[in-house]
Amino acid sequence: MNSKEVPAWPPEGSANTRRIKTVTAKKVTEQQRNAAILEIIGLLQESRRDQEWVAEQLRLKRQKVPVNPAMTLVDLLMSCDHDFIFYLRDLLRAKEHVIDAPPALTRTYHWFFTDIVGSSDPNMAANEQVSKIIALNKIVERTETFRQRDPETTIVLPTGDGMAIGFADSAEKPFMLAFEVHRALYDLNKGRKEKDRIEIRIGLDMGPVYLIKDINGNENVFGPGIVMARRVMDLAREMNILATSRFATDVKNLRPEYRAYMHEVGDYEIKHGEKVFIYNIYDGKKVGSKKVPDPDRKQKKGSDNFEPAASRFLFTHIGLELEVKDVRTMLTHHVYDWSVINVSDKPIERIFYYIDGDVPRSFPDLNVTVKDENGKELEILSLNVNKPYHKEFFVRASRPIKPKEKGRALRMEFDWEEPDRHFVYTFASNCKKFDYLLKAPKGMEMNQKVVKIDKMSGDMVLASSPPTVQYLPDKTIVTWSAKNLRTFDTYRFGW
């Protein structure tokens, strides 16, 4: 058989500029190949690289080598062809630093980030600090959520006086873990002196991260998910459980009972001037704290390009009309009528809206329309958020709404199911007069009720005046009115 030269790896002129010596197939013996594999294993250990790094190089070089989880490093290397083995050896031998590219894909995790409040207090003895850290670790380890985790998909990162735990499978897990830890700490702290209590703060978020190796070769992560969870935690006071809006919105729609624990706090400024909308999670008993983050960190009016409605509009009248179209599914037609006055000092051309529902729907299926005081349909400029249970969008006014201009109105309509047979409305600004009207098909059982909700505590009390019911031949009508409502007043309308 004629001697045949194997092309140098990689070919000259390729994107990889490293020059690798040409290998002659006739001269490559099994002994040389095995020696190269042994050298590769040693070099991998020295450089703190592992089998995953080798597999990544195979993917980058488009090598057709079957890789499966049962393979050892030796199995994987023995499956590679001669050219790749000598390329890998020379790559690892190279004197210049080889900088790994980040992994090709990120992974999304649901994050629980916590630390102990006051653990760095110089007046606290080191053994007291350590004992609190050990106690917190044991509490977490004993929770049902932690014990039932999937070790293959859960990331646990100690942070000195706390930890970050990422769950790949469920947003409920960090939420439930926070509840379990707080209940255990409540029982532990009961009867203890103040200096002996273990008080923590927790931040919850979800988002993508890169899986990387730290300097010790251990699994670590970096990415917006864990970074935001840490920054939200940094806003917290002792025994606060704070969550980003994306985390809270997704979790509160999983089970109706979760909504009672989620309390909107508002926009806060974090590192680099970034703004994040925060929810405070508590039950008023053993879990969380009603204390809000430092007010000095809260976003000031006019500090962003988009001001909230509370700083831009006064509502002289709001009408909310709900009409049940399908008793079986509780498909409901929603109509909002706003009579508005621009109380800012600039004309308003774009108006921001958001709507929430209890059933996952795509935006086109909601039949959303927005019209002005003349019945002209307005253009929806952008759909900023299109989550199954939450939509955010901007519309363009038919003409700018000038400061103090009277006679301007907006009407929004959409269809969304209300399976729980209640609707919650929060006033975005002061409102002089509010009217609520519900239309239900004849024969539908009714349990009409209007409840005022305290957004900070979650407490609910019946409205000072009850709704009025009219039973007509073809439908039932429920009405309720109120005057001089204030920003963030919240009511729940049940039927």
Description:
This protein is of the alpha+beta class and 495 residues long. It has three domains: 9-93, no CATH class; 107-297, 2-Layer Sandwich (Alpha-Beta Plaits); 309-494, Immunoglobulin-like. It has ten helices and 24 strands. The strands form five sheets. Strands 3, 4, 5, 6, 7, 8, 9 and 10 form an eight-stranded mixed sheet that branches. A seven-stranded mixed sheet has the order 14-17-12-11-19-23-22. Strands 18-24-20-21 form a four-stranded antiparallel sheet, with no helix packed on it. Strand 9 and strand 10 (275-281) form a beta hairpin. Helix 1 packs parallel to helix 4. The longest helix has 18 residues, at 172-189.
Nutshell version of this structure?
This protein has 495 residues and is α+β, with helices and mostly antiparallel strands.
Summarize the topology:
Layout: E1 5-6, E2 23-24, H1 30-46, H2 51-60, H3 73-78, H4 82-93, E3 107-116, H5 126-142, H6 144-147, E4 154-158, E5 162-167, H7 172-189, E6 200-213, E7 219-222, H8 224-235, E8 241-244, H9 245-252, E9 262-269, E10 275-281, H10 309-312, E11 313-326, E12 331-342, E13 348-356, E14 369-372, E15 379-387, E16 390-401, E17 408-417, E18 422-426, E19 431-441, E20 449-453, E21 460-462, E22 468-471, E23 475-485, E24 490-494
Parallel strand pairs: 6-8, 11-19
Antiparallel strand pairs: 1-2, 3-5, 3-6, 4-5, 6-7, 8-10, 9-10, 11-12, 12-17, 13-16, 14-17, 15-16, 18-24, 19-23, 20-21, 20-24, 22-23
